[in-house]
Amino acid sequence: MARRKPASRTRYAIFILAIAVIAAAAWFGYQHLNSQLVKAVTDKIAPVNVPADRIDPANEGHRVSITGNLAVDKPARDIDLDISADTPMLFRRVEMYQWREHCAAAGCNYAAAWSAQPVDSAKFHTPAGHENPAAPFVSARFAAKDIHLGAFSVDPELAATQMHMLEFPVRAALLPSNLAASFRDADGALYAGGGDPAHPAVGALRVSYRILPIGAVTLIGVQRGSKLEMR
Description:
Elements lengths: L5 H39 L3 E3 L12 E10 L3 E3 L4 E3 L3 E16 L2 E9 L24 E4 L3 E3 L2 E3 L1 H7 L3 E2 L9 H4 L3 E3 L2 E4 L2 E2 L2 E2 L4 E7 L3 E10 L2 E3 L2
C-alpha cells in the first residue's frame, strides 16, 4: 500500500487547523452579536412601572419607571462660591470676556467676546496686546447627597440626563463677605472684573447657575438594590 507523503499530511493538518480557527471566530462573533442584540432588545423593552414607596426585589436588574416626589436630604453646594440650592444637581457656568483670534488670507483680527471655554492667547499670531488672563475657576456641577425618589436612592447623573434644567438666579449678597466684595449682580448672574455687565473689560467674569427641580417627576432607570441607576 502506498504511504501518504509527509507534505500531504501537513496540508491536511493546516486545513483542519484553519477550519477550527474559522469555527472559533464564527462562534465568538456569534456570541458578541447575540449579546449586542439582547442588549438592544432590552433597551427597547418598555420599563416596568413600579410604585415609589417600596422596593420589590423581583425587579432587580430590570428597567423600571418610577413616578413620585424627588427630594434631597442636603442641598447641592458650590464649594468655591458657597452657593447652595435644594436640587439634585447645581450647574455653575463660568464665562470670561476674552480675546478671540480670527485669521484669513488677509491676516488676523482680534475681538473680545464671552466664552465658557478658555482661549489660549499665547497661540495667537499676535499675542502682544491680546493677552487673556487665567480664570480663577471654571464651569462645574455639584451633586446633592442622598437624592431620593420615594424609597429609592437616585443616581444624580440619571436625573441630570432625564430632567430639564431651570435657571437659578443668584445675587452677590448670597456670597460670603470676602467674595461678595468682588462680585456684582447682573440679571440673575454674578459679574466680576473691569467695566460693567453691558461693557465688560477683557478678563471680566460672568457666573450663572441652573438647577434640576425637586418635586413631582418620573424617572426611568435600572433597579440595583435600593438604587435607581443609569444601567
